[in-house]
Amino acid sequence: MSLPTKIKTVLLSTAYFPPVEYFAAMANAQQVLLERCETFRKQSYRTRCCIYGANGLLSLILPVKRDPTHNLPITEIEIDYRTNWVLQHERAMEAAYMTTPFFEYYRDDIYSLLESRQSSLFALNLSIIRLLAEMAGISCEISFTEEFRREPDCGTLDLRERISPKYKGGSLLSELEIEKPYYQVFSHKQGFLPNLSMLDLLCNEGPNAISYLKA
């Protein structure tokens, strides 16, 4: 995929604490179109994120209630609170980022969202996306699809399948010509880990995150 120099509209799936490339796409687009008419997909960023733990890459998975038909719209998927995953995720974030320069400035707002116990996966993810975008200084319009289309309108950059833990192609950050290392507190152990959750970039770089994201 060859990316245009100026992205007018980017089409994204919902995601839980999305990766850096997700927000890079947002930061370099005039408009963000969020897919709300797709059916739920497992093993995707819709319910998981990756952070840099003391022992390396750590995946945090948000549990959802099982749909026996496997055909519910993403907006109807409900979060499963039978286990205390909120506390587990907060503790993992604390252990990963408590010594970063900016975690303390963002922690309360992030934890407040997690502890709000929203029932809808789509609603929680949207709140997280908006909060992280605001923290990063990204200013763009977010709108929503009205129907599911495999092929979006001309002029819309479709990244629904591209931004995925299963994607094996080239780096979106590289194609935007912004792929470069930034400070990570555990890089002395495992080296630099690219394209983690936006939480990683924010905690380590703070207000400078927007400079990293802009092509």
Write the layout of secondary structure elements.
Elements (H helix, E strand, L loop, with lengths): L6 E7 L6 H8 L1 E7 L12 E6 L2 E6 L23 H13 L5 H12 L6 H16 L4 E4 L11 E3 L13 H4 L11 H4 L7 H8 L3 H5 L2
Parallel strand pairs: 1-2, 1-6, 2-5
Antiparallel strand pairs: 3-4
Helix pairs in contact: 1-7, 2-3, 3-4
CA radius of gyration is: 17 Å
Number of helices: 8
Spatial ordering of strands, largest sheet: 5-2-1-6
Shape: globular
SSE string, helices as H and strands as E:
EHEEEHHHEEHHHH
Cα distance, first to last residue?
Answer: 17 Å
E-strand count = 6
Mean pLDDT, to the nearest integer, reads 93
What does the model show?
- The protein has 215 residues and is of the alpha/beta class.
- The chain is 33% helix and 15% strand.
- It has eight helices and six strands.
- The chain has helices at residues 20-27, 85-97, 103-114, 121-136, 172-175, 187-190, 198-205, 209-213; strands at residues 7-13, 29-35, 48-53, 56-61, 141-144, 156-158.
- The strands form two sheets. Strands 5-2-1-6 form a four-stranded parallel beta sheet, with helices on one face. Strands 3-4 form a two-stranded antiparallel sheet.
- Helix 1 (20-27) links the parallel strand 1 and strand 2.
- Helix 1 packs across helix 7 (198-205).
- The model has no long low-confidence stretch (mean pLDDT 93).
